[in-house]
Amino acid sequence: xxxxxxxxxxxxxxxxxxxxxxxxxxxxxxxxxxxxxxxxxxxxxxxxxxxxxxxxxxxxxxxxxxxxxxxxxxxxxxxxxxxxxxxxxxxxxxxxxxxxxxxxxxxxxxxxxxxxxxxxxxxxxxxxxxxxxxxxxxxxxxxxxxxxxxxxxxxxxxxxxxxxxxxxxxxxxxxxxxxxxxxxxxxxxxxxxxxxxxxxxxxxxxxxxxxxxxxxxxxxxxxxxxxxxxxxxxxxxxxxxxxxxxxxxxxxxxxxxxxxxxxxxxxxxxxxxxxxxxxxxxxxxxxxxxxxxxxxxxxxxxxxxxxxxxxxxxxxxxxxxxxxxxxxxxxxxxxxxxxxxxxxxxxxxxxxxxxxxxxxxxxxxxxxxxxxxxxxxxxxxxxxxxxxxxxxxxxxxxxxxxxxxxxxxxxxxxxxxxxxxxxxxxxxxxxxxxxxxxxxxxxxxxxxxxxxxxxxxxxxxxxxxxxxxxxxxxxxxxxxxxxxxxxxxxxxxxxxxxxxxxxxxxxxxxxxxxxxxxxxxxxxxxxxxxxxxxxxxxxxxxxxxxxxxxxxxxxxxxxxxxxxxxxxxxxxxxxxxxxxxxxxxxxxxxxxxxxxxxxxxxxxxxxxxxxxxxxxxxxxxxxxxxxxxxxxxxxxxxxxxxxxxxxxxxxxxxxxxxxxxxxxxxxxxxxxxxxxxxxxxxxxxxxxxxxxxxxxxxxxxxxxxxxxxxxxx
Length: 713
Description:
The protein is an alpha+beta fold. Helix content is 64%, strand content 14%.
């Protein structure tokens, strides 16, 4: 007994040390975490190729060219391709969008000059530049092989004929990148530059020459400037929300589950620390939705623990000793935890592949959270529980007891639940039809979906956020007729970015006149930029494709795991139900459908399926030990009853995290949290009241069909 206490104390000390270690590194790595545009501030620009179907090579060359250029503004700038003909540029930490647009829009300044300084060739007259190997006297070396356009061939032939024995300098953006000697006149349209130290030098030179001018003509689809002040406010309020939410969840877990709850709190502390370390280690770009993903995943991390603790209570209720109950509880909870988290990971993966920018950031943090939640629940929580047990907390009263009580007849209300669901979904379709007849849009699409106008105004004084909200916004709303005016302040300047719906030429002029008249702004310090509606069309397509694709993958996984298509079908019908119910709230309440809409929908899908899997896992387990006297209806009611406490507690802890986020977060976070709360409630309702009932109805119909066929035989 003494040895076990010593072992328990040492184990607990190790765990507390780990919590402190991860906490220390977590705070230490906060400064090393990459911040996205919405947190660090900066410029986001989307270009589209004018050519309808550009080649992959031209797109790749243009991406590389732009990447070289934007690194002059920020080392963390990212250039990536979107779709087949779009390029997106994110430049954190900058604010002069117009200057950047002018610079990026220029062709590259690659030129070839002779020793007199005369330009003999321009970059667009180079057809290709690639690395090649050359062997001379048994020695291999790397060279850069160039080919020229017909026009370039003639000009290069003239230049090399005149400059035999002299150098021709290759200059990119004012810097000499190579100065080869002309050994002979080159008239065939191809040449080689030798003298390379190795492959890397040759490759860098070839790449720079190849991208000396943009391979494609680009047009701006949209540009967006984000002020850093928004980021500071978002980080502060989100961290506060995370701290408050974590404290409330920790208190709830300890009160509801006693010793196991305390073990879970220790595991969650490790979980948060590890997340921060991994964000820094893998250089994950953290955005506002990413912060929401972390805080949401803390709430979801409780789920695995609740499943385990419920199992432990049941085992103790059946008369097992605590140590044996802990072991059995973890074992029985394994399948539900793995299946539930894998299905949620599917949603996160689809979100990552179909999303872009901030949506990818959310998917990354959510996926990390899901994986870590399994690890901490199955290993760290187990380690903590055995440590506390060995310290002497081995009495069953410290773990709780759950005995089989009265079975709730959930299926007795199945028809009422089906009617309620149908009515709510139908209300959404009616609301969308009314909205469409009144405004021409079924939903209140935000500027990310419909496009809009971004107006940059430089005031004569440095207005505070409160001044902008109280004085500037009402004037803008009155002129534009837009109630959803978004404003961002560029830190360190008097510039304010005002985002509205798409404005006509007359409206733009009226807004400019109002700024001059009401605030004394100089007219030349007002610029307007369009946010293209072309992006919105693809975002809508991405939303539909992502949800459909994730749904199909989850259906296949559930079918594979449960060996019964009816489990998969009823789960997917319930998921579609959850999505449609949330869309109903979007339509009725006229919530803005913005860039986080996709993330919100897939989070709801992933969360809802997790709760459904737990119930199905219990039905599968009870089917394996079903007696002849027990009816299928009784079995389903029993399974839902056995998991009901888990369903409520998990939803409650997740709801708490999101609700605190809604109360304390900035407006863009609230825009994400509000429909998420509806989704949590709806997901819990469908898991408890709809999915089991659907499966029962399908199974009953199958039995009736089999019975009729047997009668015919």
